[in-house]
């Protein structure tokens, strides 16, 4: 029995890739998805510790809303691709740790994070409207856009480094089909 689409790495990569096919838009996402993600972790760090006690390493993370969010993301990413998730783990937990430290040590952390967050979203919409000419995925599926986007940006890097070339080829083939169908529908609609 096949996995539901939400747990299919290939299907998720195709959905994301079909809305992120333009090189300029992809470059914008490579920069600003991590900024959006990190600034959101700064906001989550504001929650302060949600549990008390525990080992010293856990206390270094808060353990705040951001930490538990990262744990959830990591678990979901592990279902999609355990190897890539393991490679992403130091980045995920590092972002959580630095966001927590930033929130604790900077009295203007939330204001700074908010400015970066808003600016990053503006760039994302410019990337989609001007370069991709296709709506952001968050218009169709907010969870897929917010949860999957950081992992798929990471996959852009992994694919460039030669990770799972067969999967990359299959995804690119499906993305090309989706983009061609989208363009054909748009052309017919404009007639």
UniProtKB/TrEMBL annotation:
One Gene Ontology term from the biological process aspect of the record: sphingoid catabolic process
Keyword annotations of the record: Membrane, Transmembrane, Transmembrane helix
UniProt key word Calcium: no
Transmembrane segments annotated in the record for this chain: 26-45, 112-130, 142-159
InterPro entries from the UniProt entry: Mpo1-like (IPR009305)
Protein origin, superkingdom: Eukaryota
Keyword Flavoprotein appears in the UniProt entry: no
One annotated Gene Ontology cellular component of this protein: endoplasmic reticulum
Name the record gives this protein: DUF962-domain-containing protein
Species of origin: Circinella minor
Source lineage: Eukaryota, Fungi, Fungi incertae sedis, Mucoromycota, Mucoromycotina
């Amino acid at each position: 029995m096949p996995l539901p689409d939400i747990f299919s790495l290939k299907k998720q990569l195709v959905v994301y890739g079909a809305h992120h096919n333009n090189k300029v838009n992809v470059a914008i996402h490579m920069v600003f998805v991590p900024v959006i993600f990190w600034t959101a972790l700064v906001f989550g760090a504001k929650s302060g510790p949600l549990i008390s006690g525990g080992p010293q390493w856990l206390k270094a993370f808060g353990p705040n809303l951001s930490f538990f969010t990262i744990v959830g993301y990591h678990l979901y990413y592990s279902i999609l691709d355990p190897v890539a998730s393991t490679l992403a783990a130091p980045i995920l937990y590092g972002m959580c740790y630095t966001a927590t430290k930033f929130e604790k040590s900077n009295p203007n952390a939330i204001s700074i994070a908010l400015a970066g967050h808003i600016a990053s979203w503006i760039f994302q919409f410019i990337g989609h409207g001007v370069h991709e000419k296709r709506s952001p995925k968050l218009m169709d599926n907010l969870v897929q856009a917010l949860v999957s986007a950081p992992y798929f940006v990471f996959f852009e890097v992994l694919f460039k480094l030669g990770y799972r070339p067969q999967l990359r080829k299959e995804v690119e083939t499906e993305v090309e089909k989706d983009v061609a169908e989208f363009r054909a529908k748009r052309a017919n609609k404009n007639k």
